[in-house]
Amino acid sequence: MRMSQEKMREEAGAGGDVGKGVVDRVARLLGVKVVEPLVRRQPSTTTCRAVALLVIGAIFVLFEQQCTFAVANAWSWLRTAWWFQHDSFEPVLATVSFFPWLALFYILDMHTPSAKAFRIQQHRNDMSNWTNTGKGSFSGWPILLGYLLPLLVFDQLYPRRRLPLQAPTAPRLVGEVVGLLIVYDALFFFCHRTMHMHKPLYRRFHALHHAKPGPVRHDAHHLDGRHYFQKFFTYLDNAFGPISDKERRCNNTRQK
Q1: SS3 for 40?
Q2: What is the mean pLDDT of the segment spanning 227-244?
Q3: What is the annotated signal peptide range for this record (predicted)?
């Protein structure tokens, strides 16, 4: 009798732990419970972003018709632009966008002394011993061409893109963009999480990415989805929890 009572207590406790875990995940997803981030953002940064969001939202609501009219004009122009009509416009734009984005941080880090005051990791302000390992070259050309050339050839042989004659309204356009970001972040999260969970995938495809320790800010979004770069759209890390320190140490051991 006593054994059965103890067993019932254990089962009840296990059920309570499962229920508590589900509640915690939902709370993280909704932003009610926030996992402590590795890096604290300055209050002024959060305030400026909130004010900017409110101003943009107010302009959008007050001038919705004007925004829709502007979208319609841009839509009519883009329908006749050959570079926009081409099926490979998105992958080419997404790939080329990395170059100015990466160059911006190189300029800020190496050639803009006044930018040091805005670094998240202030203890790494001394960059006198840094060297540019790229030496003016880009070693990823084979990967870049291997990604783009098949798309360019396929799109040239089988053109598919035809924009509708009727332009979307401004609210619909914003909703579609937000939806695409959510889908992209969801796929990115599950692919990344899968490579960390399965040893063969990690060793074959992802270990090189963790070959050298990166900045603390690089891993911060794994602790709180709201601190990811796409700030308003990535909640999956927050819902499913971070990659644990133990798992990260195991990954670092596997690559050796």
Answers
A1: coil
A2: 49
A3: none
